[in-house]
Design goal:
Structural class: alpha/beta
Strand content: 5-15%
Radius of gyration: 24 Å
CATH architecture of the largest domain: 2-Layer Sandwich
Number of strands: 7
Strand order of the largest sheet: 3-2-1-4-5
Largest sheet: 5 strands, mixed
Length: about 325
């Protein structure tokens, strides 16, 4: 009987309110279907250890073929006490009070087209019962995958270098990859920059009070602390390290749906990107070394696996700092 009429138009013709129509419709939903939806929501929430909010739970249910409204999911999660654990206050760990060299911000000039074109680094601390330890991270900005990490009570600068070396060993990135970080002393140190230059990477740093280019890594840290750290208690450093490894390697990278990736996991996103790159030519990531009005002076970084030919040497990039300062 509906034909081409919308629900709103039918309600107008029948002289009933839309709210009344939907309320009646809801009352007619079979109890079995309602219990099935509630059970599925609970299953997803518990599978992810209450790390998912209602948006990700809704996305996961739709991936499983169940058509549900996000408002209904939020209501059920609230009624069943399944809402995600809330974050605590963020504490900065950046020490930029040093006289070491600060590099040009290249990240904000890049348009990414594949993996291993831009890595983003950050470091945070985690408090245990009797001490606090550092966690250093390297994230691929294209796929949001954590490609390197180290957790220990050692110096932050040494830990950051070990995380970088782990990422290099895991990914074997091509020469020309841009490494972006804040201006912390651990990333400006001679040892850290030497590792970057040894592997043909180009250093990049955020400007003061402009953390947006590092936001993807900071977002992961927020997720890690909300969904893992603050939801558990750890007996010691080894217990914490095992849980962090489980969260990063077998949950976040492989399973957790990421809103910025179209509700896909980093692993799934990278696999799809590789499949697409095999059947189509991948355009190069673009780096603009001058203001927007001088786009004719742009320089291109080629796509995944062929980044080095069109990118100037690191020394050339550093010489351009005078133009930007």
């Amino acid at each position: 009987m509906q034909g081409n009429l919308s629900v709103e138009r039918m309600c107008q013709l029948a002289r009933v309110s839309r709210a009344g129509f939907y309320r009646l419709l809801q009352e007619r939903v079979p109890p079995e279907e309602s219990m099935e939806v509630r059970s599925a929501i609970e299953q997803v929430a518990l599978e992810h250890r209450r790390r998912y909010g209602y948006r990700r739970v809704t996305a996961e249910l739709r991936r499983r073929g169940m058509l549900v409204n996000h408002k209904r999911v939020a209501r059920v999660m609230r009624e069943d006490d399944l809402l995600a654990v809330q974050p605590k206050r963020f504490v900065s760990t950046t020490d930029a009070n040093h006289r070491l060299e600060v590099y040009l911000n290249l990240a904000r000039r890049m348009t990414l087209t594949g993996i291993d074109q831009l890595w983003v680094a950050d470091i945070t601390y985690i408090r245990l019962r009797a001490e606090f330890v550092y966690l250093a991270l390297i994230l691929d900005a294209f796929s949001r995958r954590i490609v390197g990490w180290k957790l220990d009570r050692t110096l932050a600068s040494r830990l950051a270098t070990e995380a970088l070396e782990m990422a290099i060993e895991t990914r074997s990135p091509p020469s020309g990859l841009v490494h972006h970080s804040d201006r912390g002393i651990q990333y400006a140190s001679t040892e850290y920059v030497a590792v970057l230059k040894k592997h043909g990477m180009v250093p990049s740093m955020s400007r003061p009070a402009n953390p947006y280019d590092n936001a993807s890594c900071e977002s992961f840290i927020k997720t890690l602390k909300r969904e893992e750290i603050y939801a558990n208690e750890y007996e010691n450093l080894e217990h914490l390290r095992n849980n962090i490894e489980e969260f990063i390697e077998r949950y976040y990278n492989q399973k957790r749906l990421h809103s910025a990736l179209g509700y896909r996991s980093p692993d799934e996103f990278e696999k799809q990107a590789r499949q697409e790159s095999e059947t189509a030519t991948v355009l190069g990531a673009t780096v603009r070394f001058f203001p927007e009005s001088r786009e004719e002076s742009s320089t291109e970084i080629s796509g995944e696996g062929t980044q080095s030919p069109s990118l100037p040497q690191t020394s050339t990039l550093l010489e351009n700092q005078a133009d930007e300062s």
